[in-house]
């Protein structure tokens, strides 16, 4: 009897050890998924706040055609946020069947969100960079020279802030009115763009001290040249 009981106990012990290892793997996998979901939720919240700020800044300016794309990004971001929250709940409750269907929706919303951002960056490749630099009072001379534009909306931006124009707003830096660029850099959408551009990596940063004025105020006080 002892000989018969011995192997059965060892087999039961091995089965228990194997089950215990599988449980630990499942628990570890669940926590990894939850951490990733929380990270994605945090990133989505930051994105929604960032794009909402841009919408609020430019929504009343008719020339800003990119605003509609920013709104679409915010809407898709909210859908992603809801989807990720639901996914986290399903992982916690270990609803395997629902998770299979959930992955389909996650893929669809992720793809949609990515495509909208890609369209935005392809049609208006300078929006976020120019916005960020102008708000921080950093130089955009490199963009003006490279893309033949001046200021955010046009030369008025510099005239209202500083009373003069930089040489980068003129063709070949001639400082002659006939060579002035009248197009702003923010709405520049007639340039070739790739997914990764050089100016994203090597940006020229020069601090400019100036009184804080919103871009909306600049637009209202614009000067027609």
Q: Could you characterize what this model shows?
A:
There is one protein chain. The chain has 225 residues and is mainly alpha-helical. It has two domains: 2-123; 127-220, no CATH class. The chain is 64% helix and 0% strand. It contains eight helices and no strands. The protein has helices at 2-58, 67-93, 96-123, 127-135, 141-147, 156-161, 198-201, 215-220. α2 runs antiparallel to α3. The radius of gyration is 27 Å and the shape is elongated. The N and C termini lie far apart (105 Å). Pfam families: Tetraspanin. This is Tetraspanin. It comes from Drosophila virilis. It is found in: Membrane. InterPro entries: Tetraspanin/Peripherin, Tetraspanin_EC2_sf.
Précis, in short:
It is a multi-pass membrane protein. This protein is mainly α. It is built from eight helices and no strands.
Secondary structure elements and pairings:
Layout: H1 2-58, H2 67-93, H3 96-123, H4 127-135, H5 141-147, H6 156-161, H7 198-201, H8 215-220
Helix pairs in contact: 1-2, 2-3
Summary tags:
Tetraspanin/Peripherin; 8 helices; membrane; elongated; 225 residues; 2 domains; mainly alpha; single chain
